[in-house]
Amino acid sequence: MRTLKILPYFASNLNLKALEKTPLNKSKYLILRISESQKERWKRLSAERKTTLTDLIISAVEGNMNAQERRAVLKFIEKQDNIFAKIENNINQFAYVANAKKEVHSAELIAFTQRLDEIVRLKAEQNQIFRQIYKLIANDSKNS
Predict the structure, then answer these.
(1) Domain boundary at 29, 62, 95, which?
(2) For residue 15, which phi and psi values (nearest 5 degrees)?
């Protein structure tokens, strides 16, 4: 019963104009009754994940990726791209040395070709994984 007494006070002091239009067109609000310790844990968790408490709750309820998880995935993809850029640079250096020397030992060439084939396979596998990740992110944002 105590909650019912607080609600009119809460509603009368709420700035409804400010809530009408938010960036994501979220104009509804939900009042949850939780303990103070739960609220503090959730606030700490949302701070750790660099997201809002609202987004933390929505992503947990709907099973979506939160903004922090999306950023982590995109950071991982960028890191992978940088790794392959370094590999491509090493390939170019090998080609430059081979062209300058005009001669490469057959054992070196065989080893290089084997590694190059492995890189091509890994790059194709990475691209397939990235396509799946992009689909998950796209589906996730549609459901938000």
Answers:
(1) 62
(2) -85, 90
Q: Of residues 61 and 143, which shows the higher confidence score? A: 61
Tens-digit pLDDT profile for residues 11-42: 444 444 444 445 566 677 888 888 999 999 99
Between CA 2 and CA 8 the distance in angstroms is: 11
Length, in residues, of the chain: 144
Is there a single domain that holds both residue 98 and residue 128?
yes
Range of the domain at 52: 2-62
pTM of the model: 0.47
Q: How many CB atoms are closer than 10 A to CB 134?
A: 13
Place of tokens 């001669």: 103
Please, are residues 65 and 140 in contact by the beta-carbon 8 Å criterion?
A: yes
Mapped onto helix, strand or coil, the DSSP state of residue 99 is: helix
Q: Retrieve residue 61's tokens.
A: 């309820």
- Clarify whether residues 71 and 49 are in a common domain: no
Helices (H) and strands (E) in the chain, counts: 6, 0
- For the chain, how many structural domains are there in total? 2
**pLDDT tens by residue, 38-67:** 999 999 998 988 888 888 888 778 777 777
